[in-house]
Amino acid sequence: MTSTVASPPVVALPEQRGGWWHRYVCPAHGVELDHVGLLGGRFPADGAPCAHGCRIDTPEVRGAWTVLAHQACAREIRRLARTGTPRDRAAAVDLLDRYTALYERLGATENDDADAWMHRGHLFQQALTESIWAVTIGEAAMRAGAAGPLRRTLAARAALARDTLVAQDRFRSNYTAWHLAAGAVCTGDPDWLTGEHGVFSHVLAATGADGWEWEASTYYHAFVLRAYLLALRACPDVAVPGDVAARLAAMARALTVIARPGQLPALHDGPYRRPAYDQELADLAELSAQLLPAPGEPEPVTVFGDAGYAVLRGPDLTAIVDFGPHGGSHGHRDKLALYLYGPHTPWQPDPGQVPYGHPGWREHYASTAAHPAFSVDGQEQAECAGRLVRADAHGVEVACDSAYPGVTATRRLTLHDGSLTDELTVRADRPRRIALHLRPDTELQVRAVGDAVTTVWAGDRTLHGTHTADTAAFFTARPGPGPADDPQRSRTHVDWTAHDATEVTFRSVYRTIPQDRS
User: Fold this and answer.
1) Are the CB atoms for 155 and 186 separated by under 8 Å?
2) What is the C-alpha separation between 47 and 65, in angstroms, rounded?
3) Distance CA 156, CA 352 (A)
4) CB-CB contact of 111 with 125 (8 Å)
5) By C-alpha distance, which of 209, 282, 204 is closest to 244?
6) Residue 8: which of 83, 72, 71 has the closest Cα?
7) How many CA atoms lie within 13 A of 179 on its CB side?
8) Of 235, 179, 234, whose CA–CA distance to 206 is shortest?
């Protein structure tokens, strides 16, 4: 019997410059379009498909698809270079040679099609996208011992992009992390880590003492940490200074504190569910296991003072309250929002964000109405920060005085014996319509029982809530859009509202029980 060796898959490189991937979104439904045909080199003949049956073919969507196709081709080339077989290595070298010629032809000048706010790339509209692609190409080329001219060009352009950000006093930008990673991976030069504006300097400039990246967005936090670790892996002989090592360990620990198995809350920004994001997180977990010490078991109560999150963890329930500043251009108007997660169930998650190319849904998912926060007179909160009042081994108290003029709010959380008590007190300088929002991503049952309301939240474990207020307040349930992975998914939204109130305390007690599977 003779064995056969599988031929490398056919990879056709796109022959066009990439656009902006955030345009890869259905204008009708707000969902990211399906990733199809990315290794075939040609945009789908009948348009990019939407999960709800649409087919979209516009210049913006074609440009976004091309970004995804270039990234997919780079990953496949890296896979071929890693297998170690002569056949796959030869295929990787051939594709890298083709990319060298393509980049020389398409990337000779900056991309004039870029939006005015963008830091322009060459093969892509955005220099950030180009550096992300360059990291994958650089890894493949280093492993295959090929594409030296392309690696040198990409490193030089990463250096120029980094220096441009430095000149704009934007060194701590998340873009910088990827320019640095591109330079390190494409060259192996330790100066990309140790230099004046290298990775080590960026780690200390772009993160707080609590370990969070300055934007306090889970998506960008993981995004930046992955860039750092890729750069470290590319320069294995460089010793990491103690303060930098401690900060990197704190970054990894922050993710384990807010996460449950299979869940990573999308605090403030970023996708709620997205297969490509899942792969990024899997890559990050692998890198962290290779390069960082294993984080210890989280404490029952953790306060991230710089980011402004307090996390209460019980065996079956994680509660996260947001009291910190909004993060840069990604700010969501959600002070004192309360997020509830089970081991495998997002009972009341941060809703995440759609691709930025859909302005209408993007604005909705940044709004107060989309979040389990509080509102006054149905208006948006101002972009603001709250403060920590106290914290102990069982709970926290946080407050905000500037979400609305003349309004102060205080939220007290206690987690004891698996039961979470939540008390939100809002005081106003005149009679106002004050509401507390419940925003589930599970089936929610609501029942009024005397002066109280009970809620039942479905999941692997069932969450039970009992809700009372110290003044007349109406528990109004209505249909609303689910989280940002699919705005068309309907969920039960609740606005718990006190009308013409100058002070109200909303009190909820939550407990979990195993789901009955009999």
Assistant:
1) yes
2) 10
3) 35
4) yes
5) 204
6) 83
7) 27
8) 179
d(CA 203, CA 197): 10
Kind of pairing between the strands at 444-449 and 407-416: unpaired
In single-letter form, the type of residue at position 43 comes to: F
Distance of CA 248 to the CA centre of its chain: 18
Sign of CA dihedral 129, 131, 132, 136: positive
Token pair 């930008």 is at which residue? Answer: 173
Per-residue pLDDT of the chain (518 residues; tens, 9 = 90+): 444 455 556 799 999 999 999 999 999 999 999 999 999 999 999 999 999 999 999 999 999 999 999 999 999 999 999 998 999 999 999 999 999 999 999 999 999 888 888 899 999 999 999 999 999 999 999 999 999 999 999 999 999 999 999 999 999 999 999 999 999 999 999 999 999 999 999 999 999 999 999 999 999 999 999 999 999 999 999 999 999 999 999 999 999 999 887 788 888 888 998 999 999 999 999 999 999 999 989 999 999 999 999 999 999 999 999 999 875 556 899 999 999 999 999 999 999 999 999 999 999 999 999 999 999 999 999 999 999 999 999 999 999 999 999 999 999 999 999 899 999 999 999 999 999 999 999 999 999 988 889 999 999 899 999 999 999 999 999 999 999 999 999 999 999 999 999 999 999 999 998 765 54
Separation of CA 216 from chain center: 10
Q: Which residues pair with 407 in a beta bridge?
A: 428
Q: State the amino acid at position 422 in one-letter form.
A: D
